[in-house]
Amino acid sequence: MVYPRVLEAGRSGKQREQESRRTFFAEIFIRNGPACLEKEWWDDSETSCLGIRNSIQAIMSQLRLFLVVLLPFLSLLPLTATSHCEPHASADCKKHASFVPGHNFIGEGVDITSLERKGAFVVDISKWQGPNGTCTLCRNRLMRGQWQKLPLVGEDWRERQTCRRQATNFVDELDMDVANAAAQEIGNDWKMEFAEDLKKYWKQDLGLSNTQVVFTGSRSQMTLFAHQKSHQDRYSFLRREIECEYYSLRLQQSPLLSSHFVQAIDRLPHNYDPEEYQHFINIYGTHYMNRVHLGGRARFLVALKTCAMALMGFTAEKLKECLDLEASLRHNGLSGFFSLSSECDKLWVRKTRGNFYDMYSSQHVEVVGGHKQMLFSDSRNMQLLTEWMETTKTTPGLISYSVLSLHTLLNQEDPRRNLLKRAIVSYINQRALRRDCLQSCPEGSFHSSDRRCICMCKANTVVNEKCCATERGRAYLMFYVDSASDLWGDHFSSTDAYVKFFFQNQERRTRIINGNNNPQWLEALHFGAVTLEGSDYFEVEIWDSDVWHDDLLQKCYGRLYAEMREEVWLKCHPSYGYVKFYYMLKCAPTLTGSSCHNYLPSHLPTSYFNDTNPHLGALSLSHRFRDQVLHE
């Protein structure tokens, strides 16, 4: 291998060659280092990862080149969580009016089913003064080193600058998958507090039942959006997310409760009154936040008609793969976050002959933190997305949190503690999202072995594994030949009759019934899967079998129409008598119309809410949504 020469006076040729070699490998490492860290290039070339690593080890002794190599990688490492909080005298406290980010989240009530912040606080976050007017001030490096007050009920405030700036893409198959994704905001397993009370609803997790249940986020805006779509058709949900975390804060173990919360507790009856306790839950929710993580997150959920895409040879998984690949190749991973990026958009146009968002514009957007309206002034402007992420440092939103049940704030001896717990459990159960895995799948499909609540098909030339037709016009064709009457084919003997059917260069025939002018075949002739073109004609031939050559008694023609509701008997009339038959032409799943060219939405087993009857069909939720939802 020839290395670039470094010409330098006063050095020997060997020294110059060593310097050139080191510089060359440093440049290779800087250029290819990230790939080396992600996967192994084990070959014998000097430019392999093994060669690069060996060369770098030899170079490490030289500090200048070591820094050139190492610094780019140090910049990729996330900042560790830091805390710069210390006690200050009263004079300093009065100089700094602002609180640390997150102070207005800890202790706030939240509804665990809707993930809705209630705006009602169980603790007093306004108090910050300690003895003699002292306070705890924290230096916020992300806000130009400002000193900010820590409320008395807060502790362990930290800067955590951790960013996932490259958009991550997910495909969810069910509304329950979307609900589980929304539930990831909760950082702890709150269900352990209600293990016995909720046990009958999570038998699926214990392997004792064929029912799946979702409690957390069952009524979140994202879940309701997906649930509504799931009752209309078979959908896949493409979910894209970016997220940055900047701060975290924890609530004290035994915080000072707010006066209005204490008064609300005092008003609760000592005997169980569902209405009174429900009123309390309506105000404060089911839980309160005891640890919060702050920053910014944008989440984009687009509902894709699974089977409509299949007709164009496209899937949500292929779209995800394209977006993943393009993000990995681009320096700016945010490119195309709110829209298909250029290359994936071209792929979509080639496959569908149309624009992605013209065909599938049903979407749900949630933005947390920062100046949200920036993203909606021009959602395709990636510079605005970058600028929005910067604003989340100064106006962070709530991206994840841990919770405790409200009933735990009451004394163990207080009988209302268990009554409130009972009311909370009842409320959560009523609002749970359930899916009965014993619901039968449509004919020809079966429950997936790995996810028993999803109906699947064995892929063939007509349908894919998701039971979607892969081409318009696909259908199943069968002719049923019943009998013939008063045939006449021979002068001196009875007819040895058989019947032929022709369709698109395919032929099927009945067996020969010898010596009978009134034969009964009662025979089904299957053509199997066919493709209809719009004007589809079949041909019938009635034959008399002879020793030397068969005689054609009659030819008849007819046009095929799919999805005829009743059997229509047809007759083909030779010179004498007739043959009686009918055909069945059944469109492939998700197709309809006389030639099976029209799309038909899928109606598969769906999930339902505990407080609704699963047989009532889809809930009317359309008034609760806009195409784009700005979620606080």
From TrEMBL:
The keyword Secreted applies. Residues 89-435 form the MACPF domain. PROSITE patterns: C2, MACPF_1, MACPF_2. Coiled coil: none annotated. Residues 458-573 form the C2 domain. Keywords: Cytolysis, Disulfide bond, Membrane, Secreted, Signal. One of its GO terms (cellular component) is extracellular region. The keyword Hydrolase does not apply. GO terms for biological process: defense response to virus; immunological synapse formation; killing of cells of another organism; T cell mediated cytotoxicity. One of its GO terms (molecular function) is wide pore channel activity. It is found in: Membrane; Secreted. It comes from the Eukaryota. Belongs to the complement C6/C7/C8/C9 family. This is Perforin-1-like isoform X1. The lineage of its organism: Eukaryota, Metazoa, Chordata, Craniata, Vertebrata. The gene is LOC103057932.
